[in-house]
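WARN no homologs supplied; continuing
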Amino acid sequence: MPNNYFITTPIYYVNDIPHIGHAYTSIATDFIARFKRMSGVNTFFLTGTDEHGQKIQKAATKSSIEPIALCDNNSIKFRELTNLLNLSNNDFIRTTEQRHIEGAKSLWSKLLNNNDIYLDNYKGWYSVSDETFYNEKDLIKQSDGTFKTFTGGPVEWIEEESYFFRLSKYSDQLLKLYNDNPNFILPKSRRNEVISFVKSGLKDLSVSRNTFDWGIKVPDDEKHVMYVWLDALSSYPNSLGYILDKDSDLSSYWSNATHIVGKDILRHHAVYWPAFLMSANLELPKKIFAHGWWTNEGNKISKSLGNAIDPIEIIDKYGLDQIRYFLLREITFGSDGDFSLSALKSRINADLSNDLGNLCQRSLTMIVKYCDSIVPGDENINAVDKKFLSKISNDLDELSILIDNQEINIYIRKIWDIISDANKYFNDYKPWELKDSNRLAFNNVLYVTADIIKQIGVMIYPIMPNTSEKILDFFDIEIDHISFELLNTNVAKVKIDHIKPLFPRVE
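OK structure emitted
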């Protein structure tokens, strides 16, 4: 396993405030980053904001402010969300930063030097909302004769001088990439979509605009600004200094890069981006994972319907770890999902408050009450108990494979299977009946349950870091650096100073 790992969220577009989709992507990426660090892998986690393009300029004009002022205001909101979500990111990049601008211009020069950029005229459909060029065959015709994108955005016909990237030149190389690396695009359904798109025929891509000026100026031709996607995608390696200096201190992380994106921007990441990198003779990312979209109570989320989900409001009401758990557990990562308050409340009450919370409360309270707050010793555990206690450690390799394949919800389900087994163990042995009749058995049940709770506390860290720290704090376990090595920490004879409920029920 490579010891350096680089993982990114998309560089979020700042024409509007953050929504639940941004939170979902960030939490999922954070989960993977935390798991990798726990596994002993040096992990660099990047997020940030994309701040150029026509959509930004239009939004700024509508608000009667300068584009940079709008970007400053909204980028702060994304950074605040990063803090609110308790993300463990190593960097937050803005595409208006000089380090990014220099790297983007360097990428342009590399493409130009490889004779892959030329000047011509563009005639065709463009979606300002998606900042994407479309062929008519890829659009949805409306009853009034107009067209929309698959994301629901309107398109406009534009004709203007433009620089083009020879995307068509890289069709065969892209198809070979997908064939030789079947996990380059996940899930597999998305991979098939991309392959079909490339096989249908690639046209050269317009990579500049000259009808507005909010963007990175094209080197040696300041009438043009770089296409926002050529600009934004380069922010990933620019955060490491890789494009400008392959020998920079952080550049080695780029050799093992994973991008977590929404399915609406998969084409940009899985087709345009590797083609740019091929042209520039730069290393490709190892994986592009495209997750699905969320609906709200079965309805598409949109501004016009007024049903957007504010992550700040929902976290304030139900709790951060509760929301992290729900978003990661509720759907298969890669599929679409529905955000329902009834489903959220059910997960909180059943999975968190009842399954995990009550397990901790019932068992650890008994230790406090009947064992002078000292976890009993482990001298009497039998072979069956030892097998139970070693299950998580024995399954670590399998769990790691799940995360490498981004099967987050299956990982969580397996951890909850352990929680279910722990509850069954506790209920079957009925320690409340043993405390006076069989003290050795009583002590043994409490020790085994306490140790399993400690292990669960370690394993839920990528999901719910705050809750993980609370559980480990019950056992006075150092939480500055959580790794899987903590699974082997012996809790026998440890004093439990305090027990607090983890998850209040919600109505």
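The chain has two domains: 4-292, 341-488.
OK
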